Amino acid sequence: MKGTAELFDTGWLLGSGERHPLENRIFNAVLVITCITSVLTTIYNIVLQNNSLVVACSAVSILPTTIVYLYSRKTGRHEHLGVPVFIYYLVVMIINWVSNAGTLGAGGSFFFLLTTIAVLLVKRSFLFVMGCISATLIALLCSEYKFGHHFWGYASDSQRFFDVSISLLICLMMTGAIIYAVFREYLKERQFSQELLQLTLADKQRIEQAHLIHQVLLQEVNHRTKNNMLMIIAMLNLQGRRYPEPSVRAVLNDTEHRIRAMALVHERLYCSHSLHELDFGKYLQDIVATLVNTIVLDNRITVLFDLVPVTLNINIAIPLALAMNEMVTNALKHAFPNGRPGVVYVGLRPCGIDFFEVELSDDGVGLTLPLTAEPADSFGLQIIQELIVHQLKGQLQITVGHGTWFTALVPMLKNSTTLPAAALQ
Q1: What's the sign of the alpha-carbon dihedral 352, 356, 362, 367?
Q2: Which of 162, 156, 153, 180 shows the shortest CA–CA distance to 43?
Q3: Phi, psi (deg, nearest 5) at residue 80
Q4: If 118 and its partner were Cys, which of 58, 129, 169, 295 is the partner (CB 3.0–4.6 Å)?
Q5: What Å distances lie between residue 211 and 215, 217, 270, CA to CA?
């Protein structure tokens, strides 16, 4: 047996909130109340022995209303049913008006009920509904004024009294029931919306908390990665002190610079708001300044920057940082021999939406190794070629003249492999 809460729950009658939206539940409620009204009016018309046409008007609405209700309750669809149902009820009301003594009978009360029902059934065509009802009522009043003697009347005054009184009482009760049903469904919908909002806010808080934890973990990873790399650099320094040979010391120093280039990326990520992306222009300023202070012991080399802010993902930033480290190191160590002064130019700019261009040039003696050679001395060039062309899927152009120019065109994303047609031309 259903409990009290289930007994007063109209979900089984009007539809559930999951499958039936508020408009559909209101539509079903109106149909249920209209069907109940038709059954009651049919019963009391038979009891009062009203004419057969009045009884038929009351009874003929029961079956169509039930069929439409069952369809709407099962499918949750009603948008195309409102206008036909309203027109059907309006035709029945016209017949009932003519067959039930017009203004002297109960038709007026049912017109008020019809207006309430119609506004809820066809609420998106309110002007159409009111226009039809008003025009119909005016036409009926004019017809009764002109041809009232042709309308059916009552057999006695007592029959008319009970018919009008009962009809008025039923219309009042059904109108109240419709208003109550609509208000009840509205309250249920509002409660459901509030519960959904609370769940959404709770989910949002959980997501924000998980995101915060994720950010903290990433910061810790970047911080520890940077510290580990600095530890490796310190160990390389200790190891280098055991080998006085310049060639060995040079190899270890180059390795330190490469590790420091990657460590600086993680330091930038640790200090930035985004743990996945960094401003590569600011990074270039830092890494170039670090290399100049480490390799060049005086102020004979001037560095010029032309950097447009470009934000890169960490998967692009680390390989490019290593490549730029090799370019800058090559310029500082080999372009200005014997204390020669000079200028190093570093450029960074977007190239369209999906690509960016990075450039490094100097006015030194120029690159002396053949670009196709692969001896041990060209290991830095091999690293640059491998990182930019193969790993980042970019294009690299090296020009030698009065100095050396490295120009690289790199996609913003690693899966952007279609380079512009006029790239590096």
Answers
A1: negative
A2: 162
A3: -90, 5
A4: 129
A5: 6, 10, 16
Q: Tell me the two tokens of residue 203.
A: 């989910």
Backbone angles phi and psi of 397, in degrees to 5: -130, 125
Q: Which residues pair with 401 in a beta bridge?
A: 403
Reported as type and span, the H/E element at residue 405 is strand 403-411
User: Which residues are bridge partners to 307 per DSSP?
Assistant: 348
Q: What is the pLDDT along the chain (425 residues), one digit of tens a residue?
A: 444 444 446 677 777 766 788 888 888 888 888 888 889 888 988 888 888 888 888 888 888 889 988 988 888 888 888 888 888 888 888 888 887 777 777 777 777 777 777 777 776 677 877 888 888 888 888 888 887 666 767 778 888 888 888 888 888 888 888 888 888 888 888 888 888 888 888 888 888 887 777 777 767 776 777 777 778 878 777 777 777 777 777 777 778 777 877 777 777 766 666 667 788 888 888 888 888 888 887 888 999 999 998 888 888 888 888 888 888 888 888 888 888 899 999 999 999 888 999 999 999 888 765 554 444 456 778 888 888 998 899 999 988 888 899 999 999 875 444 555 444 54
Contact 404, 396 (CB under 8 A): no
Phi-psi region of 403 (alpha: psi -120 to 50; beta: other; left: phi over 0): left
Q: Token pair for residue 392?
A: 């980042």
Cα separation of 397 and 385, whole Å? 10
What number of CA atoms fall less than 13 Å from residue 194's CA on the CB side? 6
Please compute, for residue 257, the number of CA atoms within 13 A of its CA located in the half-sphere on the CB side. 28
Q: Which residues pair with 302 in a beta bridge?
A: 343
Phi, psi of 242, deg, nearest 5:
-85, -10
* Strand segments (E) across 352-394: 355-362
In whole angstroms, what is the distance from residue 294 CA to residue 286 CA? 12
| Residue 279 Cα to chain centre, angstroms | 27
100 close to 58: Cβ distance less than 8 angstroms: no
Residue 30: is it exposed, middle or buried by C-beta count within 10 angstroms (0-12/13-18/19+)?
Answer: buried
Cβ 360 vs Cβ 331: under 8 Å: yes
